[in-house]
Design brief:
The chain has 13 helices and 18 strands. With 508 residues, it is an alpha+beta fold. It is globular, with a radius of gyration of 29 Å.
Length: 508
């Protein structure tokens, strides 16, 4: 029962994008990290009978509330004599309120909503079983731009250089969230940020201020057509029809679709959880999935196998016929019947699994996954050093081939490390096949990204009449694709003005 509960918690965290975790540009930020700058909630105040907003800001090291009486009571509670813990007093709301204040003031992040609720309950501002009307957080995350900055076009901003401010919400419905706009914008401003410069994430999508309040779909962040680095989007990692499994859980299925918002629609075909029945469909964050290598096992004559679900029965493969294999049972607890020792069986290959040696000592070093990773890492270091060595001379074709090898090794090492973390221990044939397919897909995506970037550079140089290095130096924090579009729009306006002038001259 405990294991199922743990699985349910893990599964919920994968299915529901909430303010506890933000995944932005290949990095994950937890609410327990300093990236969580502020937690806040809107609640119905039992004393004033009004909706109020309450939060804690690690930026200001102070609490924020649009009801001054709440802040006054909080200060009194904070400065009052410490309440002693009483194990016989089950509620003891004032004790937990004081603890919440201390923990937040002594912490390095904006804290948790439970702490905020405990403080409000200790002051009698919300009922013991009351739920907040809205919960959210403010995250400050890395947002390194791909252009060199220059001070000649410096724009004053409330956002620190190289950062993005993301406001997350528990509720995914924008129409419900915006009802409290005036209140949570006060909290954003309290932290020193301009609400118009922030990103808003209610449901795994990053909206600009305009997009969020005009009910548009996000276009300008990670879901835009111009892709970031290869491997950062769901489409680089998975495609329709891929067999995948949820990381850390015994849940697997087939990819039905890949969305521009980096989510995967999965049809479950294997699950040991009642809450995730076989046949159900769910949307997952792509980084919570990994390719399922179990279905791709290719058996050969002589392989030692075990029947799935019957761990006491092992055998040896005597014949391979497409999706079927014939085995001779070499070990069985049954003395009679179809599964007795010595019996030959023809079964689906998917119903069997390879038996790995019980001890690493009996496995040759060449097939241990950690050893393969070490070898490939060494090869990667050597080839990358050769590629960037001073005085190295390559023909264009040789340099391109070496770049492809370095890129391929870097991608392969990352995938193998993911497999090692998930529990794979051996570099089997099916692991090789799955990795090779994934590496090729990511290389293709990376190559396309390079071509798109070279095309943008050529277009920018043509439009601006200067080398790309000068363009980058002139404009601050403006992505290259936006610079190109910006220039095209200006030219369009200029052409319109010139046309109108010509028309006026012709007419008069």
């Amino acid at each position: 029962m405990i294991d199922i509960y743990k699985y349910m918690i893990k599964f919920k965290s994968l299915l529901l994008e909430n303010p506890d975790t933000v995944y932005y540009k290949q990095k994950t930020y937890s609410y327990t990290s300093p990236a969580n700058r502020c937690a806040f909630l809107v609640y119905k105040d039992e004393k004033s009978s009004k909706n109020a907003i309450f939060g804690y800001s690690v930026v200001k090291k102070d609490f924020v509330c649009d009801d001054s009486d709440v802040l006054k009571e909080l200060k009194e509670l904070e400065n009052s004599k410490d309440v002693k813990y009483d194990s016989n007093n089950r509620d003891q709301l004032d004790y937990w309120a004081q603890q919440g204040i201390k923990n937040l003031k002594n912490g390095n992040n904006g804290g948790g909503h439970l702490q905020l609720e405990n403080i409000l309950k200790g002051m009698g501002r919300i009922g013991i079983y009351a739920d907040p009307l809205l919960k959210g957080r403010i995250f400050e995350v890395d947002d390194a731009k791909d252009v060199v900055d220059d001070s000649d076009l410096k724009i004053e901003s409330t956002i620190p250089s190289g950062k993005a401010i993301i406001v997350t919400f528990w509720d995914a419905r924008r129409e419900k969230i915006v009802k409290y706009k005036d209140q949570y914008e006060k909290v954003i401003e309290f932290n020193g940020y301009d609400p118009k410069e922030c990103l808003y994430e209610p449901s795994m999508k990053f909206y600009t201020y305009t997009e969020f309040y005009t009910n548009e779909e996000p276009k300008s962040i990670e879901s835009k057509p111009v892709q970031p680095l290869a491997g950062t989007q769901a489409s680089d990692s998975f495609s329709v029809g891929d067999k995948v499994k949820v990381k850390g859980m015994n849940v697997a299925g087939v990819v039905l679709s890949v969305s521009a918002a980096n989510t995967i629609k999965l049809k479950v075909n294997k699950s040991d959880l009642k809450t995730v029945p076989v046949g159900s469909e769910f949307d997952f964050p792509y980084y919570g999935l990994q390719l399922d290598t179990s279905h791709t096992t290719k058996f050969k004559v002589g392989d030692k196998i075990r029947l799935k679900g019957l761990t006491d029965i092992t055998g040896k493969v005597t014949h391979v016929d497409g999706k079927h294999i014939t085995i001779e049972i070499t070990s069985s607890k049954y003395s009679f019947g179809a599964f007795r020792q010595g019996r030959a069986l023809k079964i689906l290959a998917s119903g069997a699994e390879l038996v790995q040696p019980q001890s690493d000592d009996t496995v040759t070093a060449s097939v241990k996954l950690d050893k393969v990773i070490d070898d490939k890492t060494q090869e990667f270091v050597e080839k990358r050093g050769k590629l960037h060595s001073t005085g190295a001379t390559f023909t264009p074709a040789e340099k391109q081939n070496l770049e492809n090898e370095v890129d391929s090794l870097e991608i392969e090492i990352k995938i193998l490390n993911d497999l090692l973390t998930s529990g794979e221990k051996y570099y089997t044939d099916n692991v090789k096949d799955v990795v090779a397919t994934s590496v090729q897909r990511k290389l293709d995506a990376k190559q396309k990204e390079k071509q798109d970037r070279y095309s943008l550079i050529a277009q920018a140089e043509k439009q601006y009449g200067m080398p790309i290095a000068q363009i980058r130096q002139k404009y601050r924090n403006v992505p290259l694709d936006q610079l190109v579009k910006k220039e095209s729009k200006l030219k369009e306006i200029l052409r319109s003005i010139l046309y109108r002038r010509k028309f006026a001259n012709d007419k008069y």
